[in-house]
């Protein structure tokens, strides 16, 4: 009985270690290297097009733009305004992402503790059932 419990425990450990198949890029949402390469090319093209459009808008509108940011109001060239808005959006996205990662890390810690507790209880139950089977035999 104890050997069967050991096998089951070892299988669950092996499954936990090899949850994801090899050669996958799950962080990018793709499972094939070709798709990952295509996504990178698509991102690069999108970035170049966005930069070109920003340059075009700046060239076509050389006049100053009035900016009002919560408590500050000032006038600046359109190119500076575009860069400022881009940087503010980038910072806001980074703050949101940091908060999200912190929540994930906390959840991962809670799940690890729960897994350790469940594994220790499974080991205790296996030992108790092994002792009972030895006593009854």
Descriptive terms for the model:
mainly alpha; 2 strands
Q: Would you write up a description of this structure?
A:
With 137 residues, the chain is mainly alpha-helical. 75% of the residues lie in helices and 9% in strands. It has three helices and two strands; from the N terminus they run H-H-E-E-H. It has helices at 2-17, 33-60, 78-136; strands spanning 64-69, 72-77. A two-stranded antiparallel sheet has the order 1-2. A hairpin with a 2-residue loop joins strand 1 (64-69) and strand 2. The longest helix is centred in the C-terminal third of the chain and has 59 residues, at 78-136. The protein is elongated and about 95 Å long. Mean pLDDT is 78; it is low at 18-26.
Summarize the SSE layout with pairings.
Layout: H1 2-17, H2 33-60, E1 64-69, E2 72-77, H3 78-136
Antiparallel strand pairs: 1-2
Helix pairs in contact: 1-3
């Amino acid at each position: 009985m104890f050997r069967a419990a050991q096998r089951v425990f070892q299988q669950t450990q092996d499954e936990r270690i090899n949850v994801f198949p090899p050669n996958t890029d799950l962080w990018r949402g793709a499972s094939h290297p070709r798709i990952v390469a295509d996504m990178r090319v698509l991102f690069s093209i999108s970035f170049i097009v966005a930069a070109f459009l920003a340059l075009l808008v700046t060239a076509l509108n050389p006049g100053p733009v009035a900016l009002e940011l919560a408590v500050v109001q000032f006038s600046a060239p359109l190119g500076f305004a575009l860069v400022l808005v881009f940087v503010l959006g980038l910072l806001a996205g980074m703050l949101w992402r940091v908060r999200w990662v912190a929540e994930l890390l906390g959840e991962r810690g809670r799940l690890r503790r729960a897994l350790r507790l469940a594994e220790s209880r499974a080991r205790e139950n296996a030992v108790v059932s092994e002792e009972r089977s030895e006593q009854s035999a």
